[in-house]
Write a structure and sequence with these properties.
InterPro entries: Cdt1 (IPR045173), CDT1_Gemini-bd-like (IPR014939), WH_DNA-bd_sf (IPR036390)
Number of helices: 8
Protein name: CDT1 Geminin-binding domain-containing protein
Helix content: 40-55%
Low-confidence stretches: 3-7
Largest sheet: 2 strands, antiparallel
Structural class: mainly alpha
GO molecular function: DNA binding; DNA polymerase binding
Organism: Biomphalaria glabrata
GO biological process, one term: DNA replication preinitiation complex assembly
Length: about 270
């Protein structure tokens, strides 16, 4: 009796994944691979803080990412991430943010908030009522970053093909491998995008500075009081200047008298 043959899927179905569109031979340069790894670490930290309803400052992000990657993480890398995915995060300069130990800092700090595009509005929410940063969303964003990073690299490859002796024009979706003469190790790094900077805080050193910069925008009583303070200060400064001039003149006269009587015996001067 022959054993029953187990039903198996046809070959065209079992190996269907081999026909799926993809670019397995398009490798990334070292700096681009490093940036991809840094982005994954940033996503992990930002998602964790977001789900705990904590404000993600750059100082927190920097410490956590460096602990994960064991490499330095600077503003430059965050700017490069913004170049590739400019809408993934909301960057702000904020102050009065609690530091470690629950102390408020009066200095401006760069904050990073995920800009979540959630299709299902009925999903779980954070304590602040914002959508949760789910694992599926994290994976989706990482895939988008990798595709855009590859597209950024393809732009350099396209410029290289156009610079050849016989220029080539290959659509991006048709590229399955880099040109043999295209040197990946010499591809420029991702240009970092500009991040928000702390606003310039005007510092006034005297009442005169305040009056000159804010004249016409102050309360009339305040402006009158400042004018009086400025006038008194100028008057006091003039008085001090005159006193110094008198003292200087007296000192000069005394020095001249001393120089004139130089060489005369003290006993004769006493008479």
């Amino acid at each position: 009796m022959k054993p029953e043959r187990t039903s198996t899927l046809p070959a065209y179905q079992r190996f269907e994944y081999l026909t799926e569109p993809g670019t397995p031979t398009l490798t990334l340069p070292y700096t681009y691979k490093t940036l991809e790894g840094v982005h994954q670490s940033v996503e992990q930290v930002v998602s964790m803080l977001h789900n705990r309803s904590e404000i993600c400052t750059f100082s927190k992000l920097q410490t956590a990412v460096q602990n994960i990657t064991r490499k330095n993480f600077e503003m430059k890398a965050l700017g490069q991430i913004k170049t590739i995915v400019p809408d993934d995060y909301i960057y702000r300069q904020e102050k009065n943010i609690p530091q470690y130990g629950m102390q408020l800092s009066s200095n401006y700090q760069l904050t990073v908030e995920p800009n979540l595009q959630v299709e299902d509005s009925t999903g779980p929410l954070t304590a602040e009522g914002k959508p949760m940063f789910s694992a599926s969303l994290l994976l989706k964003r990482q895939n988008v970053f990798k595709k855009r990073l590859l597209a950024y690299l393809k732009e350099h490859h396209k410029k290289f093909l156009a610079s050849l002796k016989i220029p080539l024009n290959v659509p991006d979706d048709k590229i399955t491998r880099w040109h043999p003469l295209f040197q990946l190790d010499k591809v420029p790094e991702v240009i970092p995008a500009e991040l928000p900077k702390p606003p310039e805080v005007k510092v006034y050193h005297s009442a005169k500075d305040v009056l000159e910069k804010q004249r016409g925008r102050l309360n009339p009583l305040v402006e009158k009081a400042l004018s009086k303070v400025v006038a008194d200060s100028e008057k006091e400064g003039t008085t001090k200047s005159q006193t110094n001039n008198v003292e200087c003149s007296a000192s000069t006269s005394s020095n001249q008298t001393t120089a004139t009587m130089k060489g005369i015996p003290p006993a004769l001067l006493a008479k």
